[in-house]
Design goal:
29 strands, Cathepsin D, subunit A, domain 1, globular, disordered N terminus, about 575 residues
């Protein structure tokens, strides 16, 4: 072809084709990435039980007499875990402190591990009830690297409990036992998990999810370390935030959950308010300011305190209030001091439903109201209360889970702290990476879940500003489950998979676009191409014979014309 008949049509067509295919490939890649994220399991703590646990109270003997060992019952949210290899079962209570501590046997030579000396007289009943960690039975324990004095014992003491021991690391398992694999492994595992192995203790162990470090020894370990290990273990992209959400449902239904790096949009209603707190305030809940805390009786506001420094504590069984407000509430319901003398009060169970009382906690643009039934709860009668003559045979007691905030020195400077009764009515998200706490009103008795991953940029990046939403409005992230079709369950995915309709639709749409562009390019090329003059055919030479030669190796074909088959497995999978 002479230069007069050259055209750049094929080059343009090829460029357009490459651009279109590249765009669709990019979309497919993003879709595949989202699908890959959707296959990641949601990291949760479920099967959380509200229960009593025993605290040891030892009074020294007088004039050579034996010490008096007694117990009192305290309440909390309990979860079953396993530690070590082979696993050893332990029940821990969830805590807003930073340390996870587990009772340890230092092995005085008893065949069963825990000794039978006077020490065992104090603590063996706790071990029998909640389990313990026998260090020399595990083959995976190690000393903690990075501590200045790894051999040194650490002592921690709180108003309720105290413990002393060494920091160790070992394998840590948790999860729903009904979902155990045939190997009996828990769904979630953290290798080299850091905890304090307590040699001296007076209660059950605890799983700390807070940042508050009472000793200063850990310097970044504790609850934040636990979250960091979860993100490292289960986030391949590293884009998830170091945070968790808390949903404590009613005491009579076991649908409570803690979800890591995700928010369950089925469990709360708008609006949701978010507080940013100074990074040096290292406590669960961060230290927020409630606009007011008020007490109403028969629809009439009795007392209200404005602008109260407040802390949310996921492990506290009570709500802590200033003495002025607490005494007004107790007097109005004729509360009786508990015989346990632990600072809690009792009320006749039959009176609770008749009490028209509310505790109103107001944040900026959000009100959460607790009725009497939210913090006056029927519980088993404490084990150390002796039935007195003339009393009924009932083995249940109704306790008022309110106490003076001045009794709790562990949580810094705060006049109000909101524990388990508040968390039954509120949905709380705590972000240690961006120093934020988000609060919304929870939906009660919801068992289905849709989890949305929160990116490392924080909740605003994922949801936008939720302060102005209405309770009837559907919670919708800026991206996520609402784009993908049917809701998945918490045990399947961290958020919903793209539906098959979406995948088929995207494929058909892509094919349609490619076809349309191809036809358009063909029309343009045929319409703009200059007409090539007809050239007469070349005549055959006389006397020349046509002949076909067989190849020496049999037969030949153009590579790729036909007969090129991909190898496949029996079930149709492509095999490289």
């Amino acid at each position: 072809m002479s230069p007069a008949y050259r055209t750049f049509g094929p080059t343009i067509a090829l460029s357009i084709w490459i651009w279109v295919v590249g765009s669709i490939t990019s979309i497919d890649a993003k879709l595949a990435e989202r699908m890959d994220l959707s296959r990641k399991p949601a990291i949760t703590i479920e099967d959380i039980k509200f229960a009593s646990y025993r605290v040891l109270d030892v009074n020294p003997g007088v004039n050579g007499s034996f010490e008096i060992v007694s117990y009192k019952d305290v309440y909390g949210m309990m979860v079953d875990v396993e530690v070590g290899t082979p696993p050893q079962e332990v029940t821990l209570r969830l805590s807003g402190g930073s340390s996870t501590w587990i009772p340890r046997d230092i092995n005085f030579g008893a065949p069963g591990g825990f000794n039978t000396s006077q020490r065992c007289r104090r603590v063996c009943s706790l071990i029998e009830s909640y389990g313990g960690y026998i260090q020399n039975r595990s083959v995976t324990w190690e000393k903690v690297r990075g501590l200045l004095k790894p051999e040194e014992h650490v002592s921690l003491s709180h108003p309720i409990d105290s413990y002393e021991g060494q920091y160790l690391s070992d394998t840590f398992f948790w999860g729903d036992q009904s979902e155990k694999s045939p190997s009996q492994a828990y769904p979630y595992t953290i290798d080299d998990f850091l905890f304090l192995a307590a040699d001296e203790f007076n209660s059950t162990g605890e799983l700390g999810l807070g940042l508050l470090d009472f000793t200063g020894e850990l310097g970044g370990f504790g609850g934040k370390e636990f979250l960091r290990r979860i993100v490292e273990r289960y986030s391949t992209s590293g884009s998830l935030v170091m945070g968790f959400s808390v949903y404590y449902d009613a005491y009579d239904i076991n649908s409570s959950e803690i979800t890591f790096s995700t928010i369950d949009i089925n469990k709360y209603q708008l609006p949701m308010v978010t507080y940013t707190w100074p990074p040096q305030r290292l406590v669960t809940g961060g230290g927020i300011m409630t606009a007011s805390v008020g007490f109403s009786m028969n629809g009439t506001l009795k007392t209200a305190l404005n602008n109260q420094p407040t802390i949310i504590s996921l492990g506290q069984p009570t709500i802590g209030l200033p003495a002025q407000l607490l005494n007004t509430i107790l007097k109005s319901v004729n509360a009786v001091e508990s015989k346990v003398k632990d600072g809690l009060w009792s009320i006749e169970c039959g009176k609770i439903k008749d009490v028209d009382l509310s505790l109103d906690i107001r944040f900026e643009g959000l009100n959460i109201t607790l009725t009497a039934e939210d913090f006056m709860v029927k519980v088993p009668k404490p084990s150390n209360v002796v039935q007195e003559e003339g009393e009924g045979e009932e083995n249940e007691d109704c306790r008022i889970f309110l106490e003076s905030s001045e009794q709790n020195d562990d949580y810094g400077v705060a006049t109000v702290y909101l524990g388990i009764p508040f968390l039954r009515k509120a949905y709380v998200w705590t972000d240690y990476q961006n120093n934020q706490t988000s609060i919304a009103k929870s939906k009660q008795r919801v068992t289905n879940s849709t989890l949305v991953p929160i990116s490392s940029a924080g909740i605003f990046y994922t949801f936008g500003d939720q302060r102005y939403g209405s309770p009837d409005e559907e919670v919708r992230p800026l991206f996520g489950p609402s784009d993908y079709g049917p809701i998945s369950t918490i045990s399947d995915f961290s958020f919903d998979k793209p539906s098959m309709k979406m995948i088929i639709g995207a494929t058909i749409a892509g094919a349609a676009v490619l076809t349309a562009v191809g036809v358009l390019v063909l029309v343009v090329l045929l319409g703009d191409r200059p007409e090539v003059p007809q050239v007469p055919p070349v005549p055959e030479l006389g006397g020349a014979e046509r002949c076909e030669l067989n190849a020496d190796h049999g037969w030949s074909e153009v590579v790729g014309s036909e007969g090129g088959k991909f190898q496949g497995s029996d079930d149709g999978e492509i095999v490289d």
